[in-house]
Amino acid sequence: MRTRCVSIVLVGLLLAGCALFTRPAGTLSVERQKFINAYARARVTYQHLHARIDALCQVERLTKEICAKAAAIDHQAKALDAEIQAKLEMPESEVDWERLMRLLELALGLVL
Predict the structure, then answer these.
(1) Can you give the pTM of this predicted structure?
(2) Which residue has the higher pLDDT, 102 or 30?
């Protein structure tokens, strides 16, 4: 039940994010602090879900296929996180919302 609620919340975040950050053309500017706040939420959500999946894999409550998928997703998420962290360290860099949305998709992939 709790996993389903988390899934619904993540889908809602994904859909809301698409509506908020999509424009027909041009550039979307977002305050740096708002991005940092949104990214922190996405990162914590992902880490929490990954920890739960990892714990279930450790006690063999999930299939090997699901655990392998979770490991592959985690590898991709770590690479994305490194890219985003590098951008955050450079004040003049622009925020890549597509990357943030990809991290949320990875988190959703763990739930599904």
Answers:
(1) 0.59
(2) 102
